[in-house]
Amino acid sequence: MDSAATLIQQLPELSDAQFNQKYLKQKQGMHTLAEILPQVEQKSLALHAVKLALKVNLKLGSKLAGTVKPEFQKATLRLIGKIKTSPKLKIQLLALTSSDVAIPMLVKALNHKQSAVRLHCIRAIGKIGSEAAVIELARSLESEDSQVQAWAAWALGEIDSKPAASALLKALNHKTSGVRVWAVWALGKINPKTAVPPLLKALKHQDSEVRWRAAVNCGKIGVSGVVPGLMNALRDENQIVRARAAAALGKIGARSAVPRLVELLHDPDSHAVSLRAAEALGQIGTEKAVAGLLQALNHDDSDVRGCAVSALGEISSEVAAVAVMRSLSDRDIFVRGRAAVALGNINTAGDANLQKMATAGLAIAIGDSESYVRWRVADALGQIGTEEAVAGLVRLLGDETSGVRQKAVKSLAQIGSPAGLLALEAALNREFADVRALAAQYLPDASTEAETVDLDPSASADLSVEKLPKILIASEAEASEYIVARTAGRELKYLISIGSPGVPEPKIFHKVPNRLLLEFNDLDTPVDDPDRVLPALDDVLQIIDFALKMSARPGKLLVLGQSGISRSTAAALTVCAAVLGRGKEREAWALVLAARPQARPNRWIVELADEALGRNGKLAAEIELTTATDRDRNCQQLTPRNSVSFRKS
Q1: Which residues are within 8 A (CB) of 423 and not within 5 positions of it... i.e. 6 or more apart?
Q2: What proportion of the chain, given as a percentage, has pLDDT over 90?
């Protein structure tokens, strides 16, 4: 095999055609070129090699432009600057160079009139990720453009380096509150090993907003090293800091915090601190934590009692179950309702004795004077699903309130056991018409509704129909109804569920054999609320991996979000684009629209899918084209015949 020196000597002797054939037409040749270009001493030779590469492939040429000697990079990047293409693609090419020389060119584009171009510049600087890039992003944190500020913080959080952490730590002391807020937000995104020291310093910051945001991020990181700092924060003079520190310790499961959290159940200054302390004790779940929660059941504040009840519901123990059952007699209607929900949750451990205890308690609560509590009881019995629970639901089929009766029917359908189905069949003869009608919906062996919302495989003749799953896009409420339906539910093989962080997935989703659960908010730009999570590239990669595994064994797929319009449709578009392959972006979007005509995909997820699948913005362009067409159609409908003139009378 020729040495690098030999290959470099051969370069001037090659014609353009020979150079293309040897280095640009095959992967191994391109890899070799990337290795030898940094050693080329002749500027003209390095420049010529990059110029030829750009003619063959813009992305390849751009990567090579950043591999030449640093003193040549100004010339090679000038070649990229002269390319006549869209600003977005040019920014992408500059980012591919990974060269500090590209940074001034990108900074100049930050003055572009289009906000999308400015944001792509910030993200491109972040992808370069060098010390010079960190310095520029730190400057952008002070931008008057709030979106540039947001993306600069996001980009710093994506750079896993000590310079980035140092820049963010320095920004914590900026005179402007907004800069401090974004800096502590970004610290929560970087590598925990790098983030912990600056976050612990931030917990002692003079600005209380910085302190509570640091507490939130410590909880997200979840390493034991942050516990002492959070324990100190439990004594902070600011109630928000104390509340956030309590929540973080609960998320980490810090047992050493239990005594102090028990004290905070009776925080004299803040209702919110007491609530967060109760939630944290439920997450920690030790005997001492349970003892503290039992005390809280006698609290004067009904919200604290209710929070303690819910926390006990997360602890599957006999002591917790007995305490929750007692709360079914609480003087507050909402505490009783939360007790019913908690008894349904206690069942998660699958302990038969606990199931019997919970069912016995709920059987008594069937006689509660408030329909709200009885509705919660019906829901909880559906979660438990035993024969005793079915018997309780049968009693509720005769409830005086229609909402309670209907919830009992749905819970029986959700259980789906032989006893539950027999109860549904018997419900066809009940005295209430709404019970009979709803039971009939869940009993047929065939479901016509499912077929009307499936994608139409004939939408394009050359689609890879055999690999593409049949897709249903739905809201969370619609999805629950769909899964409960007997025939439709059995046909369902795959589920992609997108929920907000920290919100538990409905238990009924567990009936679907193959599931992907993702947690992020419906955001397309960073927000400085540390509790809200922007979709990440890793989320999209998980969707793609799930889609490709499905294509080997196709079956019906349900994709759902809160409303079935934004996050879910973007995920469905990613699935279709991944399975159909490159060049089928229009067909993929058409299939999503066929399944969900009201689709308005989350743009950031679509951009990430474009990046992950290497589609160069084609997915986003298809959506933009449809949006523009809709706008034109709406404008055409506003003809003079439809206009109304107003005259003074």
Answers
A1: 390, 393, 394, 397, 412
A2: 70
Written in H, E and C, the secondary structure of 251-320 is HHCCHHHHHHHHHHCCCCCCHHHHHHHHHHHHHHCCHHHHHHHHHHCCCCCHHHHHHHHHHHHCCCCHHH
pLDDT band at 511 (very low <50, low <70, confident <90, very high): confident
Q: Is 369 exposed, middle or buried (0-12, 13-18, 19+ CB in 10 A)?
A: exposed
Q: What is the CA radius of gyration of the chain?
A: 30
Q: Determine how many CB atoms are found less than 10 A away from the CB of residue 359.
A: 23
- Beta partners for 475? 561
**524: amino acid identity, one letter:** D
Q: Is the dihedral of CA 277, 278, 281, 282 positive or negative?
A: negative
Q: What are the b/e assignments for 423-434, b being 16+ CB within 10 Å?
A: bbeebeebebee
| Ramachandran assignment for 557, one of left (phi > 0), alpha (psi -120 to 50 degrees), beta (any other) | beta
Which pairing describes strands 514-519 and 492-499: parallel, antiparallel, or unpaired? parallel
Dihedral sign of CA atoms 565, 566, 567, 571 in order: positive
**Nearest CA among 544, 547, 546, 560 for reference residue 503:** 560
For 562, list phi and psi in degrees, rounded to 5. -60, -45
- pTM of this structure: 0.84
Q: How far is CA 605 from the centre of its chain?
A: 10
Helix (H, G, I), strand (E, B) or coil at 461: coil
Q: Could you say which DSSP state residue 506 is in? A: P
Angle between helices 287-296 and 271-284 (to 10 degrees): 140
Average pLDDT over the chain, rounded to an integer: 88
**What whole-number distance in Å separates Cα of residue 145 and Cα of residue 141?**
9
**3-class DSSP state for residue 504?**
coil
What CA–CA distances, in Å, run from 644 to 632, 635, 637, 638, 641? Answer: 21, 16, 14, 11, 8
Residue-wise pLDDT for 555-606, tens only, equals 899 999 999 999 999 999 999 999 999 999 999 999 999 999 999 999 999 9
Helix (H), strand (E) at residue 437: helix 433-442
DSSP 2-24: --HHHHHHHGGGS-HHHHIIIII
Cα–Cα dist 239/234, whole Å: 9
- Tens of pLDDT, residues 123-169: 999 999 999 999 999 999 999 999 999 999 999 999 988 999 999 99
**Partners of 561 in the β-ladder:** 475
With the CA atoms of 66, 72, 73 and 74 taken in that order, what torsion angle do they form, in degrees rounded to the nearest 10? -170
User: In this structure, is the dihedral angle defined by the CA atoms of residues 123, 124, 126 and 132, taken in order, positive or negative?
Assistant: negative
What percent of the chain is helix, strand and coil (3-state, nearest 5)? 70, 5, 30
DSSP 130: S
CA distance 311 to 305: 10
57: three-class secondary structure by DSSP: coil
pLDDT of residue 207: 96
The answer to whether the CB of 415 falls within 8 A of the CB of 382 is: yes
pLDDT band for 486, please (50, 70, 90 cuts). low
